[in-house]
Amino acid sequence: MSILQLHKISMGYVTKKEATLALDSISLTVQDGEFVSVLGPSGCGKTTLLSIIAGLLSPTSGRITLGDQELNEKQARANIGYMLQQDYLFPWRTIEDNLTLGQKIRGHYSTESRRMAIDWLEKIGLGDKKDLFPNQLSGGMRQRVALVRMLATNPTLMLLDEPFSALDYQTKLKLEDLVFHTLKSEQKTAVLVTHDIGEAIAMSDRVILLSPRPGRIHRIFNIPSEIAISSPFQARAHPQFNEQFQQIWKEMENFEATT
């Protein structure tokens, strides 16, 4: 069953000097439980596309459906979680307060929902940190809290905007595995924006490669099932991983050669 459908999404910006087309007629279907990565050169509109799905930007043309609802409806937007490169935890609130803030804003806060959030915190190994403040945690810990904050609202669709790029490599690999296993165990649907080819291959069922601006779908890579079912750390050691990497790398090299 398809959960997310993009129908000819285009996005243009107009200034006093010029009009710029950032995205051009993006059409894509993401299936229930699928993990899709969006990859492309800098400035191709990856984050713009994610912001449109999240409802932070309105497309110039096109429409988006989540399940059977168009995403201009408030209820549909409430089913989306967003995890960013920075954790954006409120420094004056405890970890528990940060986790349950989304529940309170959406009017879903209860003893049961709080317990669910704390249970998630315990599952990722930070149950003893709930009364601390963000500045008392490392960057990797804060990103784990950001993951739980997203899960605490029980969204249908997860949007991940380069959530590991600010971390050191070892922490990045550990968090990739944590996010992968968490979302797969919960059968969540996810769209990841990244500039890291290896990360896209290691975490995804499919990789969507966008062309240079204006961003169009240049090619879709179906990741072999043997890689897709493996944890990101294990996927990088798979014999077919390098072949997939080289295919995508060559396509991106071609972009540079033609610009």
TrEMBL record:
One Pfam family in the UniProt entry: ABC_tran
InterPro entries named among the record's database cross-references: AAA+_ATPase (IPR003593), ABC_transporter-like_ATP-bd (IPR003439), ABC_transporter-like_CS (IPR017871), ABC_transporter_ATP-bind (IPR050166), P-loop_NTPase (IPR027417)
Domain (ABC transporter): residue spans on this chain: 4-237
A GO molecular-function descriptor: ATP hydrolysis activity
UniProt superkingdom: Bacteria
Gene3D superfamilies recorded: P-loop containing nucleotide triphosphate hydrolases
Keyword Protease: no
Keywords from the named record: ATP-binding, Nucleotide-binding, Transport
Protein name: NitT/TauT family transport system ATP-binding protein
Organism of derivation: Halalkalibacter nanhaiisediminis
